[in-house]
């Protein structure tokens, strides 16, 4: 406003001078240039105001930029997940775009005063500091991504180890519960070498001839037995007597199984009657041995 008053005063003084002694060549030229000077002055004032507003806006944008702070060594670092790392990557990328935009706009400004030059320099320094902090965030992101990749590899490896252990445990459990049994007549089992006879000699001719006892063979060939899982084996079929044959057959268990865990009917000599050997307590029945030989008496 004061500038405009000075221009008006100058114009009035010039007019009075012209009225008094007539316009000179120089004065006429100044009068001709006066509208141009006035317009240029208004333009410069507007440019200064625009520049000031632009600088203030950039300062505000930089003040609103918030970095994701990296915890110090004294602070607990929460576990990072791929989701949070992805958010951090997006945040860093967004900040990079904002800084680049602010720097581009800043470089396009033409300062017209020392104060504006100083403010622009300060803004450039602020952008440089933000970029340094941003680089730290990039390193943090890379570190987290490497850590997550390592954890994923370890999880995969542990998964494979666990699967192997599970298969091993299953195999060992199956092996521990595998039992073998065979059912047959005395002649059949003797011929296959699964049983043998002991005894039959005289002792000092006092007790008479001792009878022969059927016992299991000293070696067992699993391929000559039927394999089964004791956890699911609740009964073993016994061949019935042939039509027109003798009395109902009786079956003798010649191995070391505990007959107290048998649900089938037993005679006074502990022989199994009926068409099946029922097992009521598998753990107890197989506790003394996993090979079962049943001989038809």
Folded structure, characterized:
The protein has 297 residues and is of the alpha+beta class. It folds into 2 domains: 132 residues, Methane Monooxygenase Hydroxylase, Chain G, domain 1; 120 residues, no CATH class. 54% of the residues lie in helices and 13% in strands. It has 6 helices and 9 strands, in the order H-H-H-H-E-H-E-E-E-E-E-E-E-H-E. The strands form 3 sheets. Strands 4-1-9-6-7 form a 5-stranded mixed sheet. Strands 2-3 form a two-stranded antiparallel sheet. A two-stranded antiparallel sheet has the order 5-8. The chain is rod-shaped and about 160 Å long. 8% of the residues are buried. The N terminus is likely disordered.
Largest sheet: 5 strands, mixed
* CATH T-level fold name of the largest domain: Methane Monooxygenase Hydroxylase, Chain G, domain 1
Name of the CATH first level of the largest domain: Mainly Alpha
Helix content: 40-55%
Task: List the quaternary state of the chains.
Answer: single chain
Return the domain count.
Answer: 2
Mean pLDDT: 74
Task: Give the second-level CATH assignment, the architecture of the largest domain.
Answer: Up-down Bundle
The strand count comes to 9
Question: What spatial form do the alpha-carbon principal axes imply?
Answer: rod-shaped
Number of helices: 6
Portion of residues in beta strands equals 5-15%
């Amino acid at each position: 406003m004061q500038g405009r008053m000075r221009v008006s005063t100058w114009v009035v003084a010039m007019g009075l001078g012209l009225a008094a002694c007539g316009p000179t060549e120089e004065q006429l030229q100044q009068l001709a240039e006066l509208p141009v000077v006035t317009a240029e002055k208004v333009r410069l004032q507007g440019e200064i105001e625009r520049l000031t507003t632009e600088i203030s806006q950039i300062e505000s944008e930089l003040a609103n930029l918030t970095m994701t702070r990296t915890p110090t060594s004294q602070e607990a670092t929460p576990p990072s997940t791929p989701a949070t790392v992805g958010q951090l990557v997006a945040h860093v990328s967004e900040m990079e775009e904002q800084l680049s935009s602010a720097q581009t706009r800043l470089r396009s400004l033409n300062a017209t005063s020392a104060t504006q030059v100083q403010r622009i320099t300060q803004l450039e320094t602020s952008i440089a500091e933000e970029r340094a902090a941003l680089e730290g965030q990039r390193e943090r992101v890379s570190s987290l991504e490497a850590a997550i990749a390592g954890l994923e590899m370890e999880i995969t490896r542990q998964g494979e180890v666990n699967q192997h252990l599970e298969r091993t445990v299953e195999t060992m459990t199956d092996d521990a519960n595998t039992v073998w049994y065979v059912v047959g007549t005395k002649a059949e089992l003797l011929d296959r070498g699964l049983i043998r006879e002991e005894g039959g000699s005289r002792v000092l001719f006092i007790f008479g001839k001792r009878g022969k006892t059927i016992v299991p063979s000293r070696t067992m060939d699993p391929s000559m037995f039927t394999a089964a899982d004791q956890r699911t084996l609740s009964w073993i079929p016994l061949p019935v007597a042939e039509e027109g044959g003798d009395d109902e057959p009786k079956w003798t268990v010649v191995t070391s199984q505990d007959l107290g865990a048998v649900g089938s009917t037993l005679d006074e000599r502990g022989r199994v009657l009926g068409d099946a050997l029922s097992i009521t307590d598998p753990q107890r029945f197989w506790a003394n041995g996993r090979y079962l030989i049943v001989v038809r008496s």
